[in-house]
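Annex B. Sample input.
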Amino acid sequence: MDAVEEIRKIAAQGRSFLVATHRNPDGDAVGSCLGVRLLLMGLGKQALAWIPEGVPPSYRFLEGTGEAVRVLPAGEKFDATFVVDTADEGILGAPLPPREKTGPVVVIDHHRTRTEWGEVYLYRDTSAVGEIVFDLARELGAPVTAALAECVYTAMLTDTGSFRYETTTARVLRIAAECIELGVSPWKVALEVYETFPRSRVELLVEVLSTLRVDLEGTFASLLARPEALARHGLGPDALEDFVNYARAIEGVEVAALFRRRDDGAIRVSLRSRGKIDVSLVARSFGGGGHRGAAGCTLENLGLEEARERVRLHLEKDWKLASLKGAREEPR
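Annex B, continued. Sample output.
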């Protein structure tokens, strides 16, 4: 059975649903999660958004953030669980309860590198999962309200780098235009997502930028987000979103990386590319994944500087990154 038809059947037969996403939720994760919740509610269902780390401040303007929970109610059972923007079960915000509580798991994802998990898997090569949610609402006959459109618009805006990346297709812009026609204010969304930060976040950015190192003949730039810096400013990892792009913006840089230590001691690596290198494949070599231009992985039993050197060596030896300096064509 086609994935959409399976979802249609699950939605029709069920009454109560759970919607979840990955750890360190970004705009697509939050927008898609809350969007699916609104979609299901539009079909007359009960839906609970579960975001264990909480909704980052930049996305708290979206409808439903106040109802999103960090801890599941004890003993709660669902007819099915929707998981969005999550290429692998291991990157969920928290482990899912047993299937007798979650019901069948429906995964909606758009990552190039992925593990097909869950009972139903809906994958589409789109700019953001929010784009899939927009289509799914129409396919299931759910009303696309202004609130749902705002979730979709936010998801697409953030995952396309404000409609700058190569994933910004004509169709993406048509959907964005339709969202605006439904009542979305581009300025309001941009103001909330990109121009409303506490002073502490800007001060943290200054500290992170002070760790900048440029290697491999100017083709690899990296940043470190030390735990003490985050603690000093009273901020969590969500405050680091997009910091890595400052490193990628340096002229001549082909790959940028930001390294931070997670609470469990592992090093999380965020990778960005200008396009000549597929960083999803770089991340995959370390057990991670993602997209061609943006990906991530986790390194165990290393310090921040050691992790930076490990990735630098990999890019130098396995990807011959410095040889791309001045190259006009993508490597094969």
